[in-house]
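hey can u check if this looks right to u? its 74 residues, i copy pasted from the old doc so theres a chance i mangled smth
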Amino acid sequence: MSEDEKSSTAAALPGWAAFLTMGSTIALCEALGVVAGLEVDHHFSTAPVGILIGVVLGTVIAVVSVVRQVRRYL
């Protein structure tokens, strides 16, 4: 996909859809981080270390994903 096609696709989305996508991305990344952390804690009996690492990794992934989404509009 060329740069022009990417910018036209991003510009075609209404503002609310872009915010909905970003919000969903954040929620999904955080939820997956928490679930992964809980699973690690359950299997290795390392509570609360696993969930803390899962939340941190989920947050980092969410921030990176949202920054990439925002850069489409800049």
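Helices lie at 3-12, 15-44, 49-71.
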